Amino acid sequence: MLARSVPFILVVALLMFGAAPFLIAQAPYESTMGLVQKIFYFHVPAGFMMFLATFVSGIASIRYLVRGRAGSDRTAEAAAELVVLFGLIVLITGPLWARKAWGVWWQWDARLTSSLVLWLMYAGYLLLRRFGGPGSERLAAGVSLFGMVNVPFVYWSVNVWRTLHPKTTVVPSLQVSMGLPFYWCLVAFLLLFLALLATRVRLAEQQDTLDLLLADAEG
Description:
Blueprint: H1 6-26, H2 40-67, H3 70-101, H4 110-131, H5 136-160, H6 176-218
Protein backbone atom coordinates (compact mmCIF):
# COMPACT_ATOMS: atom_id res chain seq x y z
CA MET A 1 0.00 0.00 0.00
CA LEU A 2 2.74 2.47 0.97
CA ALA A 3 4.79 1.60 -2.11
CA ARG A 4 1.88 2.47 -4.39
CA SER A 5 1.54 5.87 -2.69
CA VAL A 6 5.21 6.81 -3.15
CA PRO A 7 4.70 9.11 -6.20
CA PHE A 8 1.95 11.04 -4.40
CA ILE A 9 3.98 11.24 -1.18
CA LEU A 10 7.02 12.50 -3.08
CA VAL A 11 5.03 15.19 -4.86
CA VAL A 12 3.58 16.44 -1.58
CA ALA A 13 7.00 16.35 0.06
CA LEU A 14 8.59 18.30 -2.79
CA LEU A 15 5.84 20.92 -2.65
CA MET A 16 6.32 21.26 1.09
CA PHE A 17 10.10 21.56 0.74
CA GLY A 18 9.56 24.15 -1.96
CA ALA A 19 7.37 26.24 0.33
CA ALA A 20 9.58 25.74 3.40
CA PRO A 21 12.13 28.51 2.60
CA PHE A 22 9.34 31.08 2.38
CA LEU A 23 7.92 30.03 5.76
CA ILE A 24 11.37 30.00 7.31
CA ALA A 25 12.13 33.45 5.92
CA GLN A 26 9.00 34.79 7.60
CA ALA A 27 9.96 33.31 10.97
CA PRO A 28 11.56 35.78 13.41
CA TYR A 29 15.27 35.75 14.15
CA GLU A 30 16.36 34.08 17.36
CA SER A 31 17.52 36.79 19.78
CA THR A 32 21.07 35.55 20.37
CA MET A 33 22.03 33.65 17.19
CA GLY A 34 20.24 35.65 14.51
CA LEU A 35 20.02 34.36 10.96
CA VAL A 36 22.15 31.24 11.44
CA GLN A 37 19.54 29.80 13.82
CA LYS A 38 17.32 29.10 10.81
CA ILE A 39 19.44 26.01 10.09
CA PHE A 40 17.41 24.63 13.00
CA TYR A 41 14.42 24.10 10.70
CA PHE A 42 16.34 21.47 8.72
CA HIS A 43 18.86 20.25 11.30
CA VAL A 44 16.35 19.13 13.95
CA PRO A 45 13.82 17.41 11.61
CA ALA A 46 16.70 15.51 10.02
CA GLY A 47 17.75 14.43 13.50
CA PHE A 48 14.23 13.22 14.27
CA MET A 49 14.22 11.20 11.05
CA MET A 50 17.57 9.67 12.01
CA PHE A 51 16.04 8.57 15.33
CA LEU A 52 12.90 7.28 13.60
CA ALA A 53 14.96 5.28 11.12
CA THR A 54 16.93 3.81 14.02
CA PHE A 55 13.75 2.57 15.68
CA VAL A 56 12.39 1.16 12.42
CA SER A 57 15.64 -0.68 11.78
CA GLY A 58 15.88 -1.91 15.36
CA ILE A 59 12.30 -3.18 15.57
CA ALA A 60 12.55 -4.84 12.16
CA SER A 61 15.80 -6.47 13.30
CA ILE A 62 14.06 -7.89 16.37
CA ARG A 63 11.33 -9.34 14.15
CA TYR A 64 13.98 -10.83 11.89
CA LEU A 65 15.89 -12.41 14.79
CA VAL A 66 12.69 -13.88 16.25
CA ARG A 67 10.88 -14.99 13.11
CA GLY A 68 13.59 -15.05 10.46
CA ARG A 69 11.47 -13.29 7.86
CA ALA A 70 13.31 -11.85 4.88
CA GLY A 71 10.88 -8.92 4.68
CA SER A 72 11.86 -7.75 8.16
CA ASP A 73 15.53 -8.00 7.23
CA ARG A 74 14.95 -5.90 4.11
CA THR A 75 13.14 -3.25 6.15
CA ALA A 76 15.93 -3.20 8.74
CA GLU A 77 18.59 -2.69 6.10
CA ALA A 78 16.59 0.00 4.27
CA ALA A 79 16.02 1.92 7.50
CA ALA A 80 19.70 1.59 8.42
CA GLU A 81 20.60 3.28 5.15
CA LEU A 82 18.26 6.13 6.10
CA VAL A 83 19.95 6.43 9.50
CA VAL A 84 23.20 7.05 7.65
CA LEU A 85 21.57 9.44 5.16
CA PHE A 86 19.70 11.64 7.64
CA GLY A 87 22.53 11.34 10.13
CA LEU A 88 24.88 12.76 7.53
CA ILE A 89 22.57 15.75 7.11
CA VAL A 90 22.65 16.23 10.89
CA LEU A 91 26.44 15.98 11.02
CA ILE A 92 26.86 18.51 8.22
CA THR A 93 24.27 21.10 9.27
CA GLY A 94 25.27 20.87 12.94
CA PRO A 95 28.85 22.11 12.52
CA LEU A 96 27.69 24.81 10.09
CA TRP A 97 25.38 26.07 12.82
CA ALA A 98 27.96 25.59 15.58
CA ARG A 99 30.70 27.53 13.79
CA LYS A 100 28.59 30.68 13.81
CA ALA A 101 26.77 30.16 17.12
CA TRP A 102 29.63 28.78 19.26
CA GLY A 103 32.71 29.90 17.35
CA VAL A 104 33.87 26.30 16.78
CA TRP A 105 33.00 23.63 14.24
CA TRP A 106 32.77 20.82 16.80
CA GLN A 107 32.57 20.23 20.54
CA TRP A 108 33.12 16.78 22.03
CA ASP A 109 30.11 17.09 24.29
CA ALA A 110 27.59 14.35 25.06
CA ARG A 111 25.03 15.07 22.32
CA LEU A 112 27.46 15.62 19.47
CA THR A 113 29.72 12.72 20.37
CA SER A 114 26.88 10.25 20.95
CA SER A 115 25.23 11.29 17.67
CA LEU A 116 28.48 10.65 15.82
CA VAL A 117 28.87 7.26 17.52
CA LEU A 118 25.29 6.33 16.56
CA TRP A 119 25.96 7.27 12.95
CA LEU A 120 29.17 5.22 12.94
CA MET A 121 27.26 2.22 14.29
CA TYR A 122 24.96 2.22 11.29
CA ALA A 123 27.76 2.92 8.87
CA GLY A 124 29.37 -0.18 10.36
CA TYR A 125 26.06 -2.02 9.97
CA LEU A 126 26.06 -1.34 6.24
CA LEU A 127 29.71 -2.34 5.87
CA LEU A 128 28.95 -5.56 7.75
CA ARG A 129 26.02 -6.30 5.43
CA ARG A 130 28.20 -5.61 2.39
CA PHE A 131 31.38 -7.46 3.34
CA GLY A 132 30.46 -9.71 6.28
CA GLY A 133 29.72 -12.82 4.27
CA PRO A 134 27.23 -15.58 5.18
CA GLY A 135 25.45 -15.04 8.47
CA SER A 136 26.21 -11.32 8.58
CA GLU A 137 22.49 -10.51 8.51
CA ARG A 138 21.95 -11.78 12.06
CA LEU A 139 25.09 -10.10 13.37
CA ALA A 140 24.05 -6.84 11.70
CA ALA A 141 20.62 -7.17 13.30
CA GLY A 142 22.33 -7.22 16.69
CA VAL A 143 24.22 -4.05 15.79
CA SER A 144 20.97 -2.35 14.80
CA LEU A 145 19.29 -3.43 18.02
CA PHE A 146 22.17 -2.01 20.04
CA GLY A 147 21.95 1.25 18.08
CA MET A 148 18.23 1.57 18.78
CA VAL A 149 18.82 1.11 22.51
CA ASN A 150 21.27 4.03 22.40
CA VAL A 151 18.77 6.52 20.96
CA PRO A 152 17.23 7.53 24.33
CA PHE A 153 20.74 8.18 25.64
CA VAL A 154 21.56 10.39 22.63
CA TYR A 155 18.29 12.30 22.98
CA TRP A 156 18.39 12.89 26.74
CA SER A 157 22.13 13.49 27.02
CA VAL A 158 21.69 17.26 26.76
CA ASN A 159 19.41 17.22 29.80
CA VAL A 160 21.78 15.13 31.91
CA TRP A 161 25.19 16.67 31.18
CA ARG A 162 26.24 20.28 30.83
CA THR A 163 26.58 20.94 27.12
CA LEU A 164 26.57 23.75 24.59
CA HIS A 165 23.85 21.98 22.67
CA PRO A 166 20.27 23.23 23.32
CA LYS A 167 18.14 21.05 25.60
CA THR A 168 15.13 18.99 24.53
CA THR A 169 12.77 21.64 25.89
CA VAL A 170 13.45 23.95 22.94
CA VAL A 171 10.98 22.38 20.48
CA PRO A 172 7.96 22.19 22.85
CA SER A 173 8.50 25.82 23.86
CA LEU A 174 8.61 27.26 20.33
CA GLN A 175 6.40 30.27 19.75
CA VAL A 176 3.81 29.94 16.97
CA SER A 177 5.81 31.99 14.47
CA MET A 178 8.72 29.54 14.80
CA GLY A 179 6.64 26.43 15.45
CA LEU A 180 4.70 26.62 12.19
CA PRO A 181 7.75 26.45 9.86
CA PHE A 182 9.39 23.88 12.12
CA TYR A 183 6.47 21.44 12.08
CA TRP A 184 5.98 22.10 8.38
CA CYS A 185 9.57 21.00 7.75
CA LEU A 186 9.15 18.07 10.12
CA VAL A 187 6.18 16.75 8.12
CA ALA A 188 8.09 17.29 4.85
CA PHE A 189 11.02 15.27 6.17
CA LEU A 190 8.66 12.57 7.42
CA LEU A 191 7.03 12.23 4.00
CA LEU A 192 10.46 12.04 2.38
CA PHE A 193 11.47 9.39 4.90
CA LEU A 194 8.38 7.27 4.15
CA ALA A 195 8.88 7.54 0.40
CA LEU A 196 12.56 6.60 0.59
CA LEU A 197 11.90 3.71 2.97
CA ALA A 198 9.13 2.23 0.82
CA THR A 199 11.20 2.64 -2.36
CA ARG A 200 14.29 1.04 -0.86
CA VAL A 201 12.33 -1.92 0.52
CA ARG A 202 10.69 -2.43 -2.87
CA LEU A 203 14.08 -2.39 -4.60
CA ALA A 204 15.37 -4.99 -2.13
CA GLU A 205 12.35 -7.21 -2.85
CA GLN A 206 12.97 -6.98 -6.58
CA GLN A 207 16.67 -7.73 -6.08
CA ASP A 208 15.84 -10.85 -4.07
CA THR A 209 13.39 -11.97 -6.76
CA LEU A 210 16.02 -11.43 -9.44
CA ASP A 211 18.61 -13.39 -7.45
CA LEU A 212 16.18 -16.32 -7.15
CA LEU A 213 15.49 -16.27 -10.89
CA LEU A 214 19.20 -16.22 -11.68
CA ALA A 215 19.82 -19.07 -9.26
CA ASP A 216 17.05 -21.13 -10.89
CA ALA A 217 18.43 -20.38 -14.34
CA GLU A 218 21.93 -21.45 -13.35
CA GLY A 219 20.60 -24.56 -11.63
